[in-house]
Amino acid sequence: MICGRRFVDPRVFFPLACFLIAAASPACNGTDNHVSDGPTAGDLYVYWSNSGPSSFSIGRAKLNDPENPLQGWIQGCEFPNGVAVDANHIYYSNLTEGPSGTMGRAELDGSGVNQIWVAGCQGPHGVAVDTNYVYWANQNTNSIARATRDGLEVDQVWITGCNTPYGVAVDASHIYWANADGDTVGRANLDGDGVNQGWISGCDKPGGLAVNADHIYWANIGTGIGRANIDGTAVDQNWCSGCAAPYGIAVYGEYIYWARVWNNEIGRAKLGDLPTDITLDWITQCDEPMYCTVGSM
Predict the structure, then answer these.
(1) What range does the domain containing 205 cover?
(2) Is residue 1 in some structural domain?
(3) Confidence category of residue 10, pLDDT binned at 50, 70, 90
(4) Is the distance from CB of 91 to CB of 58 less than 8 angstroms?
């Protein structure tokens, strides 16, 4: 428990598995995850947070070699949650580092680890990054935070009025977040205006989020994955009922990914009007994986 503040360990109440995925391009990483021209599969890695107390680490595996994961790639984390990458760094939230949590950062080769890159967070969960800012959800203050990518200009309450925010995603026009206790997905403009806490309603404990050029996806924790058009129309709360026990999700290229915290696995399925080629154990041997991302080294 985080002293003096409300802290809900989601593993007590429902399955966790957040998987935020993005291409490591200078454009939007953790943002618009539909990348038509980017690194090949041989250049890409999957990164995830091992939230199990016996690990507390960031793991990774080559996208084309999921059978050989490196589970302890970055160690010394404190209940790691959200993960996002850009062309140079990996960013992650330490939910219980210090009194209220921190943001960590490292080079993409695993060097230069800084577990307190940004201090003073308030129960940080999901993470996203674009060309200008790193964003994270502060569940203790029901807010979305952001900082410039150099770790300066920190605003821990940039967007307020959320309802236990978990996953975060961003594209070229908007930032999105999951209100886990409000059963909604929120949205705002990238300048922080136009906040709509109920942009998509009718969710069931939404966790992680992912976007591409056409759609937004969210995890209805324990029941499946929902999808809508990127303008919020054509909402389908049961788009992938076979994507078992998702917390977070991510899209990259032709695939959607989700982590299965209680099963210590990462799942994968092929995108389409309905998902196909569903594989629940695409990556195994994780330790309560929560949020993850994809990017080049």
Answers:
(1) 10-296
(2) no
(3) very low
(4) no
| Number of domains into which the chain is organized | 1
Please report, for the domain that includes residue 253, its CATH number: 2.120.10.30
Per-residue pLDDT of 194-219, as tens digits, reads 999 999 999 999 999 999 999 999 99
Structure confidence at residue 140 as a pLDDT band (50, 70, 90) = very high
**3 found inside a domain:** no
Q: What is the average pLDDT value for the chain, to the nearest integer? A: 86
Residue 32 lies in a domain: yes
CA distance 291 to 146: 18
Does the residue 2 lie in any domain? no
Counting Cα atoms < 13 Å in the Cβ hemisphere of 136 gives 37
